Known about the structure:
The protein is of the alpha/beta class. It is built from nine helices and twelve strands.
Amino acid sequence: MALHVTRRTAVTTVAAAVAGAIAVPSSAQATGGRPRRKPLRRAHAHNDYLHTRPLLDALDHRFTSVEADIFLVDGELLVAHDPVDLDPSRTLESLYLKPLAERVRRNHGSVYRGHRRPVQLLIDIKADGVAAYAELHRQLHRHRRLFTTYAQGKVRPGAVTAVISGDRSARAPMEAQKVRYAFYDGRMTDLAGPAPASLIPLISDNWNNHFTWSGAGPMPAAERAKLHQIVGTAHSRGQRVRFWATPDLPGAERGAIWLELIAADADHLNTDDLVALEAFLDAYDRR
């Protein structure tokens, strides 16, 4: 979809929608009797585990991608952004794997009932990539019927696709596996590399490493062309695109970035503000 001169109108429309949505609590939106709406295919919950109800808040807001940071501690995978925040009760199993498995079982094989597209679980290994991935593989194997699987050169879709990010040392053991239940989060350098989408289905990178524009004023034509070229190249290889470190404070700049990403057909919009992105995407669809 091309982005035309309607940018200012669109930003105003979605800003108004977001302002109204912020007053509505998550629980009310999830259970208020409104008709079930389709999942938001571009919505990615960055640092999802920091929300009051990890995973569940994102699913209430119809997100289709969530991100969890993990550390390997005494043989267990704990979810936290920094070591100081580690809590033995906050495990990957308890916050993500078990709830996803239970939800998929209730919904007869999918995270969102009636929608077969896999939900992405982006797992960011913060340290000890080789050892952490070895334990992660064991845990994913226990839930193997839940996950998209690579086996003997073929990919079999599941209800959830696990993608491994963070510590880059996890890549080598993943590449060596003939059977795995996760995929690798590439960087822009992988866009022209030899690794196929069956290993690297996602290209993620820091927005500020590639663009100077931060949402104020019009996007420079050369940077817009670069964004479209990146996404087009990835899609031609069967890969998806996500940028992190995009502006995420309320305001026109964030909305302008999101609009440009949608216009370029980027696959994931990165946010910590679940309510705002849900309202933005709903308002965009109603334009």
